[in-house]
Write a structure and sequence with these properties.
This protein has 113 residues and is of the alpha+beta class. The protein has a single domain (3-110), classed as 2,3-Dihydroxybiphenyl 1,2-Dioxygenase, domain 1 (Roll). It contains 2 helices and 7 strands, in the order E-H-E-E-E-E-H-E-E. It has helices at 15-26, 76-85, and strands at 3-11, 29-36, 39-46, 49-54, 66-73, 95-97, 100-102. The strands form 2 sheets. A 5-stranded mixed sheet has the order 2-3-4-1-5, with helices on one face. The chain has a two-stranded antiparallel ribbon with strand order 6-7. A hairpin with a 2-residue loop joins strand 3 (39-46) and strand 4. The longest helix has 12 residues, at 15-26. It starts with a strand and ends in an 11-residue tail after the last strand.
């Protein structure tokens, strides 16, 4: 099983302003722009790194604009079983959006993965 940091997921009070900033300053390219989990989601690439924006302001001012860190794997079922064997609790079951699958877990210091 392979894993890698896939993206940081950020809230955006003004998503167009955020996209334009990263395009102008760092040459970001839009990878996708779609509705998912009740909000517009736009993923951009800056080199080999990615940021995914929610089109909504931060919900919890204490956590700021960061919603979660996306960890990519080539076998989500194996990763979930491994994490459960180590005592991790998942918020939900694995969800599928066509070719995309995800599940949420809380890391130390309540970092959402």
């Amino acid at each position: 099983m392979k894993t890698s940091l896939h993206h940081a997921h950020l809230f955006a009070s003004n998503i167009e302003e955020s996209i334009q900033f990263y395009r102008e300053m760092f040459g970001a390219k839009v990878l996708f722009d779609l509705e998912m989990a009740g909000a517009r989601n736009v993923m951009i690439a800056i080199g080999s790194s990615k940021i995914n924006f929610y089109d909504q302001p931060p919900k919890d001012q204490r956590r700021g604009s960061i919603h979660h860190l996306g960890i990519e794997t080539d076998d989500i079922e194996v990763l979930v079983a491994h994490m459960k064997s180590k005592g991790f609790q998942f918020i939900n079951k694995i969800k599928s959006f066509g070719p995309l699958k995800y599940v949420m877990a809380a890391a130390p210091d309540n970092v959402l993965l």
